[in-house]
Amino acid sequence: MVLKKIIKARKSYIWIPIILFVKLIVLYFFFSQIQNHSPDKLNGIVFISNDFSELVEPSNQLIKNGIYSLDDQSPPYAGRIPGYAFPYLLFRLLFSENISLQLLILTQIIFSSIAVFLLGLISEKISKKSLSFFISIIVFSFFPFFIKEDLYTMSTSFSISAFIVHLFFLEKFFNNESKKTLLISGLFLTWVVLLRPFTLLYIFPIIVYITYKNRRKLNNIFKYNFIFLLPFIIFECFWIPRNYINTKKIIPLQDAYVPGQKFGYSSGCDIDCIAKFSVIEIRKLISSWGGNSIWYKPGSEMHWFLSYKPLDFKNHLFVKNNIFFEGFNKDSLINLKKDLQLSYNGELNYDERVKIDLEIVQKCKKFRAIYMKNKPLNYFFISHLNRIKNFLFVNPTQDWPGASFTENSIFYKLYKSISILIYLLTLFSIPIYGIILLKKKNIYGLICLSYACILIFIFGFLVELSSVLYFSTGLICGWICLVLIFKNILFKTK
Q1: What ranges make up the beta strands (E) of 310-446?
Q2: Taking the model in full, what pTM does it have?
Q3: CA-CA distance, 92 to 61, in Å (whole number)?
Q4: Is 40 helix (H, G, I), strand (E, B) or coil?
């Protein structure tokens, strides 16, 4: 009797505070781990990320000086699209910076709880089984892939939550074709794009669907596409003119992928920045053979370059990848690392360090050209497969706070192991559902599958950086695919 009441109450909003309560327990555990291991980066319940200055500080400057910039001396900033600024500014207009940050993190946690509830509803709707609802909220309350991101001043938490809301209203639109639900779906997808600009390509599958669905109704094609794109169009009508007035450049999204991508230094990425243009060129070099360019991952090629550990790499990935040939050998990389270390040497004057950076850039371009000439198959094809592997086949718990896996408690080991298992199950559901889709067509599943494939393409072929954080929305799509697999195989629902 009690079980029946629980099942009947699954669509009640009472589940949101229940999910929130569970998430707070889990997050408290994570918070204690962070506090014990990184006390210098904590501010109340806020964990200050490396992106703080670019995501939050421009909003503070806007309040203080009326200019959206990195600091008092910097020009108007367009290096990051202001998706994260919107919720923060709402608090900052009323409260101090510190209180606003605490409220921002609380908002991330609450919004994430709402998103988990909506994901449960989506799962039940597409599978037509109440069991899917409960499994979804249990998994994403206890074992979400990026649970710690709710505590960070990063765009990951909001982007995942907003994406789920987008999927929720998109599913409704597929069933009722309501202009209102399409508009709301477009609004939240726009916010996802403003948080994660590389998700801009998500717009195109929806446009293709609307166009194909209404191929015999020209008016509907324009009408529905315009409604869906309206939030993004409105934002661009303000953002592009603002950027042109201040920079004399047409910037539809952001000026550069990272602050140091263009030759030149700024207060956002000066000569000591880990994303300055010399490092970016090294990252491109690493990507040319499909190496790992995540600087904070121990054992990665980029971590080797930026660390001050011994120059030798006897057992390193460089050797395992067999990348060397005449004109590009072990000494080439060792000397490149020496140059990079010198470029960070504060005892040298500014001009000397800039000169060294320029030399690094030229060497990297030379080595890339040599590698392309000697190993064209690796450069144009195999390297991209390696980049996809580095992007997807990772341990999603590797940067979780706390001691190492072997040193931690049995509870934490079990928690991590289950999380990794769920991650792999979700990841492999994407290609499996792609095969199923050939026989059982489902437009909602097709859209979700296309989102995941878009991310794989972007980080396999267009962007050298391949952090698992960037695949967060893809994993939500993977979960949708997993639910649909169970629907088609186990539930056998038509």
Answers
A1: none
A2: 0.91
A3: 11
A4: helix
As a whole number of angstroms, the distance between CA 131 and CA 419 comes to 20
Quick one: DSSP state of residue 147?
A: G
Q: Which residue has the tokens 């939550």?
A: 161
Mean pLDDT for the stretch of residues 16-45:
77
Q: Over 80: is that where the pLDDT of 308 sits?
A: no
184-213 burial, b for 16+ CB within 10 Å, e for fewer? Answer: bbbbbbbbbbbbbbbbbbbbebbeebbeee
Structure tokens at 174: 């597929």
For residue 273, the tally of other CB atoms under 10 A from its CB is 18
Q: Which two tokens stand for residue 109?
A: 């946690």
**DSSP line for 242-260:** HHHHHHSS--SS-S-SSTT
- Note the pLDDT tens digit of each residue in 377-423: 989 999 999 999 989 988 888 777 777 777 777 888 888 889 899 99
Q: Could you state, in order of their start, the residue ranges of all structural domains in the chain? A: 2-255+397-491, 277-288+290-374
d(CA 162, CA 164): 5
Residues 444-477: tens digit of each pLDDT:
999 999 999 999 999 999 888 778 889 999 999 9
Q: At what angle do helices 277-288 and 350-374 cross, to 10 degrees?
A: 10
* DSSP output for 379-399: IIIIHHHHHHHHHHSS-TTTT
Query: CA 223 to CA 225: how far, in whole Å?
Result: 6
Q: What percent of the chain has pLDDT over 90?
A: 43
Cβ atoms within 10 Å of 141's Cβ, excluding its own: 23
- Number of Cβ within a 10 Å radius of residue 483: 26
- Tell me what pLDDT residue 263 has: 45
Those residues whose C-beta lies under 8 Å from the C-beta of residue 137, and which sit 6 or more positions away, are 15, 19, 116, 117, 119, 120
Tell me what the pLDDT averaged over the chain comes to. 85
Does the structure show a pLDDT above 90 at 236? yes
How far the first Cα of the chain sits from its last, in Å, is 29
